[in-house]
Write a structure and sequence with these properties.
The complex is a heterodimer. By secondary structure, chain A is mostly helical. Chain A has 8 helices and no strands. In chain A, 20% of the residues are buried. Chain B is mostly helical. Chain B is built from 3 helices and no strands. The chains are: A mainly alpha, B mainly alpha.
Chain lengths: 185, 102
């Protein structure tokens, strides 16, 4: 089937971009570049969601990560930049080795497990779901079936963002008793 | 395109995140890595929704949407904590924050 192979090609391309940018985001010293790589990786993941047949979540993912999280990440990187510039790497060689061995081992286990499982080798189901899962369906679900979870999520996000604003406000003089103790060590 | 293929990409994304958390000492990069692991989980959820018994059900997508909201709250709080720690210790490296060390 020609359509399916084109889909697979697009999927492989997007997957390669996601993984390469994720590796860049994790190993780069320059945090601004790492932040851009992270945002690019996660926005491309939104493209994978769209290939998998879910336009709405793909759009949400791209909006969330290139909009909100990008601004947040880049501002925090710039605000804490002084301590990062000219420091070089704080990681020692054994950090890289242990991290690589543990995460590589986990990936190997997962890879073998996924390849051995027969159900995971099945192809893409033929039905195309987006015909029924329109924005209208999401709206109806949010006002009927998922009304209470949505409200609870609103309360949680409000609490989280008020908490974040409270945590990030500047320290007053004499506000923290352990300030002089912690700053030097 | 099979389900196993998507799961392998998701597993690779998760392991990259795990590598970052285990081997980097910069708190901002650790937060990036946690974000990567979150998104690997979301990719898994979407893959199982798409390949599952009933791809017309909206519940799998709702799961991902609420999880996305949680991950947004987590990023905001985590970055606020990093900002606060930076103001207090003038550093974002994990080894410089040792006040609670025994």
């Amino acid at each position: 089937m020609p359509e399916l192979s084109v889909q697979l090609l697009i999927f492989m391309f997007l997957g390669t971009v996601v993984l390469a940018c994720a590796i860049y985001a994790v190993i780069l010293v320059d945090l601004i570049r790492a932040g851009y790589a992270l945002i690019f990786s996660l926005a491309t993941l939104g493209g994978i969601y769209i290939v998998l047949g879910n336009d709405f979540l793909g759009a949400v993912q791209i909006l969330l990560y290139t909009g909100a999280i990008a601004v947040l990440v880049l501002f925090v990187v710039m605000l804490t930049r002084k301590s990062v510039d000219g420091m070089g790497r704080a990681e020692k060689k054994q950090d890289w080795i242990w991290g690589g061995v543990l995460s590589g081992g986990l990936f190997l286990l997962l890879f073998i497990g996924i390849n051995k499982h027969k159900d995971f080798a099945s192809g893409l189901p033929p039905i195309v779901p987006q015909s029924d899962l329109t924005l209208q369906a999401f709206g109806m679900a949010f006002t009927e079936e998922y009304f209470v979870p949505l409200q609870i999520m609103g309360v949680l996000l409000t609490a989280a963002f008020i908490g974040a604003a409270l945590i990030a406000r500047p320290e007053k003089k004499g506000d923290e008793s352990g300030k002089d103790m912690g700053a030097g060590s | 395109m099979t389900l196993g293929f998507i799961l392998i990409i998701s597993a690779a994304l998760f392991c990259i995140g795990l590598f970052g958390v285990l081997s980097r000492r910069n708190m901002i990069v650790i937060l990036f890595s946690i974000e990567l692991m979150f998104n690997a989980a979301h990719l898994n959820l979407i893959a199982f929704w798409r390949f599952g018994e009933n791809p017309l059900a909206i519940s799998g997508l709702m799961f991902v949407l609420f999880s996305l909201a949680i991950s947004g709250a987590e990023a905001a709080i985590g970055l606020a904590l990093i900002l606060r720690l930076y103001r207090h210790y003038k550093s974002v490296e994990t080894q410089s924050i040792t006040e609670l060390k025994g």
